[in-house]
Automatic annotation (TrEMBL):
Organism: Rhodoferax fermentans
Topology feature Cytoplasmic, residues: 1-7
HAMAP family cross-referenced by the UniProt entry: CcmE
Sites where the protein binds heme: H121, Y125
Coiled coil stretches, renumbered: none
Keywords tagged on the record: Cell membrane, Cytochrome c-type biogenesis, Heme, Iron, Membrane, Metal-binding, Signal-anchor, Transmembrane, Transmembrane helix
Any one Gene Ontology cellular component term annotated for this protein: plasma membrane
Domain of life of the source: Bacteria
Topological region Extracellular: 29-147
Protein name: Cytochrome c-type biogenesis protein CcmE
Length: 147
């Protein structure tokens, strides 16, 4: 084999290895990517069915129900609501009327089954996406009440 052919084979092999590595990295990134949706976006059908994503907002007052380790509650952005169920131990800061972000899947009936629940960690914190969603929902609610 001529040196020119060896060099071309090495370059082709290197490009193939880089392409394969890039494919595996992008595939792993896509499978671990989790999007955030608000209750209003979920109600309008923007959220994926049977795929993991996050929903955030406030825990609706009076919606918390416990049955051993299974907890059900409602997440709201003051405009729309999403029923959520979670089996496990909730964070200490989880309370009604406080901010929450839950990660899980939405079933066909619109019920969200959480695999992880995150609660805010101090009095002033709310995830930026959830705060923006709450502000937007309040603006939409105010605009619709003026009509």
């Amino acid at each position: 084999m001529k040196p020119r052919h060896k060099r071309a084979a090495l370059i082709a092999g290197g490009l193939a290895a880089i392409g394969l590595a890039a494919y595996f990295v992008l595939n792993a990134f896509e499978s671990n990517l989790v999007f955030f949706f608000t209750p209003s976006q979920i109600a309008s059908g923007e959220a994926p069915k049977e795929r993991t994503f996050r929903v955030g907002g406030m825990v609706k007052e009076g919606s918390l129900k416990r049955d051993n380790l299974t907890v059900s509650f409602v997440v709201t952005d003051t405009a729309k609501e999403v029923p959520v169920s979670y089996t496990g131990i909730l964070p200490d800061l989880f309370k009604e009327g406080k901010g929450v972000v839950a990660q899980g899947k939405l079933d066909g009936s619109g019920h969200f089954t959480a695999s992880e629940v995150l609660a805010k960690h101090d009095e002033n914190y709310m995830p930026p996406e959830a705060q923006h969603a709450m502000d937007q929902a309040q603006l939409n609610k105010a605009a619709s009440s003026l009509k």
